[in-house]
Amino acid sequence: MITRMEDTEQFDEIPVAKNMRMIAGWRQWADAGSVSSALPEYLVEVTGARKIGEMDDDGYYIFQIPGAHHLLRPIIQLEDGYRRSLEEKRNEFYFAGDDENGLVIFIGDEPHLGVDTYARNFFSAVKKLGVSQIAGLAGVYGPVPYDRDRQISCIYSLPAMKELLAVSVDNWTAELPDIEKHFARFGDRLPPGLKEELAALEKRLK
């Protein structure tokens, strides 16, 4: 059992923004299609987000289980007997934005142990960063025909958020020009799939 009560989050800087929000994902069980782990990494890349801190991983992870140690131990790459890389558990915070709008991107490894302590330390970091809203990502596999739309749902923490999360056709229509303007910033780096998704969204809203 983890009994450490001191802060385990370490920050090189605490960015300040009028509106600070967070997108959080984990390398975890509920990571179908890598939606939880890959999307934050993609956002870090396209926004040029910089790393601002991390959570210590001491005590959260099992090193081995008899018969399944190869699933849990750190992955090491060797070349001619020399260690080239070592893949360890990581829980990292990144930041992109300005003084007006800030986005914290969190990428972590789902803990095996001390889940309550991990959660307390995570939300302690959220408080330190002044984050007002968090969107956590997850995906599960299911038997869905290839030609059917995928189900997207959410769980919210406060009753008042239900109205905030409701889909408004008028609001989405009004947002389209801003989305197009934002996409234009990336030029040829923008994946074609995002342009196709935006066109399909505009068609559905009409």
Account of the protein in words:
Helix 4 (169-184) runs antiparallel to helix 5. Residues 1-5 have low confidence and may be disordered. A hairpin with a 3-residue loop joins strand 6 and strand 7 (101-109). By secondary structure, this protein is of the alpha/beta class. The protein contains five helices and eight strands, in the order E-E-H-E-E-E-E-E-H-E-H-H-H. It is globular. The protein starts with 8 loop residues before the first strand and ends with a helix. The longest helix has 16 residues, at 169-184. It has helices spanning 35-47, 115-129, 161-165, 169-184, 192-205; strands at 9-11, 19-27, 50-55, 75-79, 82-87, 92-97, 101-109, 133-136. 31% of the residues lie in helices and 23% in strands. Strands 1-3-6-7-2-8 form a six-stranded mixed beta sheet, with helices on both faces.
The helicity comes to 25-40%
Average pLDDT: 86
The number of helices is: 5
Residue runs with pLDDT of under 50 for 5 or more positions: 1-5
Sketch the topology as an H/E string, one letter per element: EEHEEEEEHEHHH
How far apart the termini lie comes to 55 Å
The strand count comes to: 8
Which structural class fits the helix and strand makeup? alpha/beta
User: Gyration radius, to the nearest Å?
Assistant: 20 Å
Apparent shape: globular
| Percent range for β-strand residues | 15-25%
Lateral arrangement of strands in the main beta sheet? 1-3-6-7-2-8
Tell me about the largest β-sheet: 6 strands, mixed
